[in-house]
Design goal:
- The chain is globular.
- The chain contains one helix and six strands; from the N terminus they run βββαβββ.
- The protein has 88 residues and is mainly beta.
- The chain is 5% helix and 39% strand.
């Protein structure tokens, strides 16, 4: 797990994620979808366009585990990167 900054491309993993309603934040969020790599409890920071897709939509994203000081670990995928919709 890194501390931010530039990362080597080998640190990123492609996983399937899903759009869900995050009741704690009262808006849509993105989380891993039955991934063997990351817990389904983790949240994914990604493009707003992905979070605006219909609930249950699955997308393939390149992610890396990270954390901000004082927060729990989460997954990051740049908003500039392409993504693939698997099912909507």
């Amino acid at each position: 797990m890194g501390s931010g900054g530039r990362r080597d491309s080998s640190e990123y993993v492609k996983i399937t994620c899903e759009v869900f309603y995050d009741s704690t934040r009262r808006k849509n969020g993105v989380r891993p979808s039955s991934s063997d790599v990351f817990s389904k409890d983790m949240k994914v920071e990604c493009a707003k366009a992905i979070r605006e897709l219909p609930l249950g939509t699955k997308v393939i994203l390149s992610v890396v585990e990270t954390e901000k000081e004082g927060s729990r670990p989460f997954l990051y995928s740049s908003y500039r990167w392409p993504y693939e919709v698997v099912r909507s």
